[in-house]
Design brief:
The protein has 454 residues and is mainly beta. The protein has 2 domains: 67-131 and 213-447, Pectate Lyase C-like, CATH 2.160.20; 136-210. Helix content is 5%, strand content 38%. The longest helix is centred in the N-terminal third of the chain and has 13 residues, at 81-93. The chain is globular.
Length: 454
């Protein structure tokens, strides 16, 4: 029975009550609206009935629809994305439910697309979804923006149903076209796509096609849970696709997505990336050995909660991208990355608290310079973190660059255990304003006060 794991919002498994409280209380965000002094509160809903069209309140059902997927002995038997996708589509059509993926290996030739109102749950380390090796071919003929087909120079390694990434770059403007599509029909090396192009793919722009895609993808969906499974991007046998388009998990324009107990590893790009997606919770996950970013709360994403994760062996542990606000990064272990945490372009009013950042080769925490004060990441609070062995000799553990303003670094511990290494705890650049450093504890080769940047 999965009823206890679902939100009272309705048939869709959104954030728990604790999640919603944490978003407000942990970040310290309070919203006050003027109201008439004699205004009355509406009556509480104490005995709801299932009413047509009401997705906000419904009864607490003891059982919910669950479909199992497995290599054998399951409701749907299979070992690739088609079996899992079929189960998700079935529970979504019936109003929401759980897809339970049993232990086993599942080989993916296309993204698993997440509908609204579903819970995708595995059997922990025993449920492993692996991306198949990628193939790449140049286009043999031009395709124009109104076309819905391509012709490949070499079709070996491509199959119907494959997810593909189509790319081209105009050398004069530098503009890059990146499109994700599925191959749906073929005649020799000529393939039909599931959707039209709406962009030009020309040979003179080095147009190409690769079997690249996110392992799990959500696009304009809400109230989704992903739990207790392993996603493996098979990095050594795949070409790169950056986190603006893919990752082990990629979300675009989504709301109320909870990712718990997931391992996201070995992707030729990001581990978990979400763009313009709000109230995303990433909790108790292991994200490791991805080429680019471990966690990528992306452009315009509001109120992310990143808690109790291990993020290691990537380029950057947490990358606050662009306009990410009112977020919480708490009690994460961030180790062995080039940069532990990066904050920049209009990433304001976030709280980074109680994390351990260790073994970053460049910086434990970087505030990016951006394009002037109006673009920088202001009013972020960095409190109670432990920085261990970060940065090169004579480097800076925390580097606040550009026109960044109103940053509070309070009660952080800076520890340096590497023999012969001396680093400065914090550097505040000459264009920064109101950078407060207070209550820091220093141990080992960490310099007590930052020199001014040249």
């Amino acid at each position: 029975m999965d009823g206890a794991l679902w939100s009272a919002r309705g048939t869709r498994p959104g954030l728990t009550a604790a999640d919603r409280v944490a978003i407000v209380l942990s970040v310290g965000l309070a919203i006050s609206m003027p109201r008439a002094s004699a205004a009355a509160e509406p009556p509480a809903v104490t005995a709801p009935r299932q009413t047509s069209g009401d997705r906000a309140v419904e009864p607490e059902w003891e059982e919910r629809l669950t479909i199992t997927v497995g290599n054998r002995d399951a409701d749907i038997v299979g070992a690739d994305q088609r079996a899992i996708q079929g189960a998700l589509d079935q529970v979504a059509r019936l109003g929401g439910g759980t897809v339970r993926v049993l232990a086993g290996d599942y080989r993916l030739r296309n993204a698993i697309v997440l509908p609204s109102g579903v819970r995708l749950v595995g059997a922990g380390a025993g449920t492993v979804l692996v991306k198949e090796p990628s193939s790449t071919s140049a286009l043999e003929a031009d395709s124009d923006w109104y076309d819905q087909e391509i012709t490949l120079r070499d079709a070996a390694g491509f199959r119907l149903g494959d997810g593909v990434c189509l790319r081209a770059k105009d050398p004069k403007t530098g503009r890059e076209v990146v499109l994700k599509r599925t191959l749906t029909a073929a005649s020799g090396r000529r393939f039909k796509l599931d959707r039209p192009l709406r962009e030009n793919l020309w040979q003179l722009h080095d147009a190409s096609c690769s079997t690249l895609f996110p392992l799990l993808e959500g696009d304009h969906v809400e109230d989704v849970r992903i739990e207790n499974l392993v996603l493996d991007g098979n990095r050594s046998h795949n070409a790169e696709l950056d986190g603006n388009y893919a990752g082990c998990i990629f979300l675009q324009d989504c709301s109320r997505v909870v990712i718990r107990g997931v391992t996201a590893r070995n992707y030729q790009g990001d581990g978990i990336s979400w763009q313009i997606s709000h109230d995303v919770v990433v909790e108790n996950c292991l994200v490791e050995n991805n080429k680019s970013l471990a966690l990528h709360p992306g452009s315009g994403s509001q109120r992310p909660i990143i808690r109790d994760n291990t993020l290691r062996g990537c380029d950057i542990g947490i990358f606050f991208c662009w306009g990410v606000k009112y977020g919480l990064a708490e009690h994460n272990r961030i180790e062995g990355n080039r940069i532990g945490i990066s904050i920049g372009h209009r990433d304001t009013d976030n709280l980074v608290v109680g994390n351990t950042i260790q073994g970053s080769t460049l910086h434990g925490l970087l505030f990016r310079p951006e394009r002037g004060p109006s673009f920088a990441g202001h009013r972020n609070r960095i409190a109670g973190n432990t920085f261990v062995d970060n940065g090169p000799n004579e480097g800076f553990v925390v580097d606040v660059q550009g026109g960044t303003q109103d940053i509070e670094l309070r009660d952080n511990a800076f520890i340096e255990n590497r023999p012969g290494v001396v680093v400065s705890s914090v550097r505040a650049g000459p264009e920064t304003r109101n950078i407060t450093v207070a209550g820091s504890r220093l141990q080992g080769g960490a310099a007590p006060r930052p020199p001014a940047a040249p």
